[in-house]
């Protein structure tokens, strides 16, 4: 049903996530610490991949370095605004700021989906076709794949932002969410949103379903190959490498499917689910990949040893 008021909104108010007032200080401190640790952890992973010669020459760790950049970006786009919601003063976001937040979130989020798929493909080649791996996954091919993921992500983000903000917004201006995302913003449109909802469902559904299906297919072949490894140590190393990726993919995809691939609904659980891809997953990725990846831990030890050697000199 269309609203007759034609005055375009200049700003939005993000209502944030509901919380008891007595927990304001705790939540402010909690998410501030999460944000700082997210930036530090992902920056450490990125610098380790860039500096360590044994890592930045391998496609698997190039993907990991790019993932760290994306995680820092998503966290920086969403979490500072979330933290502001735990202050006493209401801080609106401008119309242009809302557009930018929605665009960059879907740009980086879809790029992350594509990157997870490339990481699964890389593991499939390394474990299932080890003799062909150096030919099928060269640094040039890896760079082209990463570039393709960035380009596809930017196109996806542009489509979603354009479709969402081509509609008129004339009031009210309270977004019942902690950031400008498609379902929450569309509820404020002064026009019929049926086409937008259908395109959003199909577009995001295709991205999520296709990426997840390819990841699942890759890991079906990977598990079969791992079970055929004769040595227990070989199976353990293969499962350890792939286990980190499976854990991260599960934490990321399940909440995204819950938010975007349901019939139109306004569930209070949407905000809690959205915390996973926006705040929790970027925070956990460095921990998961560091604790479960022996080569990253060795690279960190080499970096620490080099720093100690420099300081002694």
TrEMBL record:
<protein>
    <submittedName>
        <fullName>Olfactory receptor 10G3</fullName>
    </submittedName>
</protein>
<feature type="domain" description="G-protein coupled receptors family 1 profile">
    <location>
        <begin position="41"/>
        <end position="289"/>
    </location>
</feature>
<dbReference type="Pfam" id="PF13853">
    <property type="entry name" value="7tm_4"/>
</dbReference>
<dbReference type="InterPro" id="IPR017452">
    <property type="entry name" value="GPCR_Rhodpsn_7TM"/>
</dbReference>
<keyword id="KW-0675">Receptor</keyword>
<keyword id="KW-1133">Transmembrane helix</keyword>
<keyword id="KW-0807">Transducer</keyword>
<keyword id="KW-0472">Membrane</keyword>
<keyword id="KW-0812">Transmembrane</keyword>
<feature type="transmembrane region" description="Helical">
    <location>
        <begin position="26"/>
        <end position="49"/>
    </location>
</feature>
<dbReference type="InterPro" id="IPR000276">
    <property type="entry name" value="GPCR_Rhodpsn"/>
</dbReference>
<keyword id="KW-0552">Olfaction</keyword>
<feature type="transmembrane region" description="Helical">
    <location>
        <begin position="61"/>
        <end position="83"/>
    </location>
</feature>
<dbReference type="GO" id="GO:0004984">
    <property type="term" value="F:olfactory receptor activity"/>
</dbReference>
<dbReference type="GO" id="GO:0005886">
    <property type="term" value="C:plasma membrane"/>
</dbReference>
<keyword id="KW-0716">Sensory transduction</keyword>
<feature type="transmembrane region" description="Helical">
    <location>
        <begin position="204"/>
        <end position="227"/>
    </location>
</feature>
<keyword id="KW-1003">Cell membrane</keyword>
<feature type="transmembrane region" description="Helical">
    <location>
        <begin position="273"/>
        <end position="291"/>
    </location>
</feature>
<feature type="transmembrane region" description="Helical">
    <location>
        <begin position="133"/>
        <end position="159"/>
    </location>
</feature>
<dbReference type="InterPro" id="IPR000725">
    <property type="entry name" value="Olfact_rcpt"/>
</dbReference>
<feature type="transmembrane region" description="Helical">
    <location>
        <begin position="103"/>
        <end position="121"/>
    </location>
</feature>
<dbReference type="GO" id="GO:0004930">
    <property type="term" value="F:G protein-coupled receptor activity"/>
</dbReference>
<feature type="transmembrane region" description="Helical">
    <location>
        <begin position="239"/>
        <end position="261"/>
    </location>
</feature>
């Amino acid at each position: 049903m269309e609203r007759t008021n034609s005055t375009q909104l200049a700003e939005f108010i993000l209502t944030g996530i509901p919380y008891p007032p007595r927990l304001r200080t705790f939540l402010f401190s909690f998410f501030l610490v999460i944000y700082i640790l997210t930036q530090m952890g992902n920056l450490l992973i990125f610098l380790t991949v860039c500096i360590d010669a044994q890592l930045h020459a391998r496609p698997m760790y190039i993907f990991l370095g790019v993932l760290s950049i994306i995680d820092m970006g998503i966290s920086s786009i969403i979490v500072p605004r979330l933290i502001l919601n735990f202050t006493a003063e209401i801080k609106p976001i401008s119309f242009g700021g809302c557009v930018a937040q929605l665009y960059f979130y879907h740009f980086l989020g879809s790029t992350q989906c594509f990157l997870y798929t490339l990481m699964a493909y890389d593991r499939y080649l390394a474990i299932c076709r080890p003799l062909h791996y150096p030919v099928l996954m060269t640094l040039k091919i890896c760079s082209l794949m990463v570039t393709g993921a960035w380009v596809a992500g930017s196109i996806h983000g542009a489509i979603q932002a354009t479709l969402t903000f081509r509609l008129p917004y004339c009031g009210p201006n309270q977004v019942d969410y902690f950031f400008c995302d498609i379902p929450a913003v569309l509820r404020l449109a002064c026009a019929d949103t049926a086409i937008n909802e259908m395109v959003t469902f199909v577009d995001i559904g295709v991205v999520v379903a296709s990426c997840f299906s390819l990841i699942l297919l890759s890991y079906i072949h990977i598990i079969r190959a791992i079970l055929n490894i004769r040595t227990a140590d070989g199976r353990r190393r293969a499962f350890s490498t792939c286990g980190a990726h499976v854990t991260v993919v599960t934490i990321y995809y399940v909440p995204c499917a819950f938010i975007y691939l349901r019939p139109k609904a306004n569930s209070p659980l949407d905000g809690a689910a959205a915390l996973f891809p926006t705040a929790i997953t970027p925070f956990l990725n460095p921990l998961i990949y560091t604790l479960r990846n022996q080569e990253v831990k060795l690279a960190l030890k080499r970096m620490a040893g080099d720093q100690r050697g420099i300081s002694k000199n």
